[in-house]
Amino acid sequence: MTRIDQIMRQALPNPDILVGVDLGQARDYTAITITERGHRLVGDPYNADTRDRRGRPTVEVRQRVEPEYQCRHLERLPLGMPYPDQVKRIIKLTKRLSGSPLIIADQTGVGRAVVDLLVTELGEAIEGTDLEPTVVRIGITGGAAVSRIPGGFSVPKVDLVGAPLVLMQNDRLHVAESLKLQPTLVKELLNFRRKININTSNATYEAWREGDHDDLVLSLALGTWAGQNLLRTREYVRAPAALVPDAPIVYRGG
After folding, report:
1. Angle at 82 between CA 79 and CA 88, to 5 degrees
2. Which of 106, 168, 238, 246 has the most CB atoms around its CB within 10 Å?
3. pLDDT score recorded for residue 188
């Protein structure tokens, strides 16, 4: 690794943490995924014409980046687990994290009450800590457009599932092979991939068969959709000015 590679890697932002929660009904699993959204360097560093804080012309070293996702945790809660116990499990997992994780919870089947309970108990559980999670409510629809709902968004199912499929197709989504449920998740993803045309703007999909399990893929989809649509996406990173003089830079212009 060259010196400039080391410098640009140091400039990458810390990863964002996304907790996807697909809340199941009585006969369905509740699935939880924890995914990191980081950035990876693309192409070569280049010199970009810009201005300093005083408005004077200067040059800074930049390199393009794009988001990438690493699924670090997969979990299915036991069938029949009471919702208060499910909420406690979600909170326990969240308290192991740091910073400002985003918890994206599907309230479609179970209604607002379970997510209300999560919001209330989570607030009490993190009081006095440095953890600053945010809960985003998602209602999954069969429509064609995203819309606002109190505390979150109504999102077409095809949009949700399209998020991890596109990332997977572009090698920007990785699921740790050490996870016990990794083969099950991959199977669900491939099942959806056969049903959804992710290359068309008017994506269509077959009716999901009764009995098809999609809890893991929807949990992952909640996190990746939020990462792609609700978080700031950087286009480039800049090298710390103090380190630039020692680094060989390829000049490309602005």
Report:
1. 110
2. 106
3. 83
Residue ranges of the chain with per-residue pLDDT less than 50? 198, 200-211, 242-243, 245-254
Tokens of 206: 């077959």
Please name the residues in contact with 172: beta carbons below 8 A apart, sequence gap of 6 or more.
40, 66, 67, 68, 69
Exposed, middle or buried: residue 246 (CB in 10 Å: 0-12, 13-18, 19+)? exposed
Sketch out the chain's domains with CATH numbers.
13-38+70-239 (3.30.420.240)
Check residue 131 and report its DSSP letter.
Answer: -
Q: Which of 170, 157, 172, 178 is nearest to 221 (CA)?
A: 157
* Residue pair 168/196 in contact by the 8 Å Cβ criterion: no
- The angle at the Cα of 175, spanning 100 to 81, to the nearest 5 degrees, equals 70
Output the six-digit token pair for 148: 């606002």
Using DSSP's 3-state secondary structure scheme, residue 147 falls into strand
Tens digit of each residue's pLDDT (9 = 90 or more) over 64-99: 999 999 999 999 999 999 999 999 999 999 999 999
Kindly tell me the burial class for residue 162, based on how many C-beta atoms sit within 10 Å of its own C-beta (0-12, 13-18, 19 or more): buried
- Cα dist. 198→128, 163, 169, 228 in Å? 44, 9, 10, 15
Distance from C-alpha of 87 to C-alpha of 113, rounded to nearest angstrom: 11
